[in-house]
C-alpha cells in the first residue's frame, strides 16, 4: 500500500515511478499481487493511469486501519521531498514493514534491513518487496524493529524530553 495526499507533487511522482518501473518487475515474481494507492485529492488522470497499470486506486478512504492490518507492506518510492514522512511513521506504528527510498526515511534513524528496507532503483525496490513477500523472518523482524524504533525516536516521552532540554537551554 501507498498512502499520500495527491496535492503534494512528490506523491504523484512516486506513484507514477512505482506504476511504470517497479510494479511490472514485482508482478513478474508475484503475479497475483495487489497494490492499494490511497490518498486524498487523487487526480482523475492519475487514477486512470494507475488503474491501467493494474493498481487499485482508492483515493481518499475514511479509515486507513483496515488497510494497515491487511496489507503485507507499505511502500514509499519517493524520489524527492523533505522532512520526516508521516506515511512512514504511520506504517511503522502499525508494525507494517516498509520498502522505501532513502528520501522516504530522511530525518529518521531507520536502518536498511533493520527497521525498513531501503531501495533506489526499480530492480532493488522490486527485489526488496519480493523479499518481504517470501521471507517471514525478515517480515517479522522489520515489523517488530520498525515499530520499536518509533518509541525511541518519536514517542510522546521523547518529544517531551527534547522540548524540556530546549526550554532549559533557552532559559539558561
Explained architecture:
- By secondary structure, the chain is mainly α.
- The protein has one domain (2-171): Rossmann fold.
- The chain is 53% helix and 10% strand.
- The chain has helices spanning 9-29, 44-52, 65-70, 86-93, 122-134, 136-153, 156-171, and strands at residues 2-3, 36-38, 56-59, 74-76, 98-100, 117-118.
- Strands 1-2-3 form a 3-stranded parallel sheet, covered by helices on one side. The chain has a 3-stranded parallel sheet with strand order 4-5-6, sandwiched between helices.
- The model has no long low-confidence stretch (mean pLDDT 94).
Global structural class = mainly alpha
> Looking at this structure, what is the CATH superfamily?
Glycogen Phosphorylase B
Please give the number of β-strands. Answer: 6
Secondary-structure arrangement, i.e. CATH architecture: 3-Layer(aba) Sandwich
Can you tell me the CATH class? Alpha Beta
Helix and strand element order: EHEHEHEHEEHHH
In angstroms, what is the radius of gyration? 17 Å
Q: Give the biggest beta sheet.
A: 3 strands, parallel
- Strand line-up across the major sheet: 1-2-3
| Low-pLDDT runs | none
Number of helices: 7
How many discrete structural domains?
1
Tell me roughly what share of residues is in helical segments. 40-55%
Per CATH, what is the topology?
Rossmann fold
* Coarse shape: globular
Tell me, rounded to a whole number, the average pLDDT: 94
Strand content: 5-15%
Distance from N terminus to C terminus (CA atoms, Å) equals: 47 Å
Amino acid at each position: 500500500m501507498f498512502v499520500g495526499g495527491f496535492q503534494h507533487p512528490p506523491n504523484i511522482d512516486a506513484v507514477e515511478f512505482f506504476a511504470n518501473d517497479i510494479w511490472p518487475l514485482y508482478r513478474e515474481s508475484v503475479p497475483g499481487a495487489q497494490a492499494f494507492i490511497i490518498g486524498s485529492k487523487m487526480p482523475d488522470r492519475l487514477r486512470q493511469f494507475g488503474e491501467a497499470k493494474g493498481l487499485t486506486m482508492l483515493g481518499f478512504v475514511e479509515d486507513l486501519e483496515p488497510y494497515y492490518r491487511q496489507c503485507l507492506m507499505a511502500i514509499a518510492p519517493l524520489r524527492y521531498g523533505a522532512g520526516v514522512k508521516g506515511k512512514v511513521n504511520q506504517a511503522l506504528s502499525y508494525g507494517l514493514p516498509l520498502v522505501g527510498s532513502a528520501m522516504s526515511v530522511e530525518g529518521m534513524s531507520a536502518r536498511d534491513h533493520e527497521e525498513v528496507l531501503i531501495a533506489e532503483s526499480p530492480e532493488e525496490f522490486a527485489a526488496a518487496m519480493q523479499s518481504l513477500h517470501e521471507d517471514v523472518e525478515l517480515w517479522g523482524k522489520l515489523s517488530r524493529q520498525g515499530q520499536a524504533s518509533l518509541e525511541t525516536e518519536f514517542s510522546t516521552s521523547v518529544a517531551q524530553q527534547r522540548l524540556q532540554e530546549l526550554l532549559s537551554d533557552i532559559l539558561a
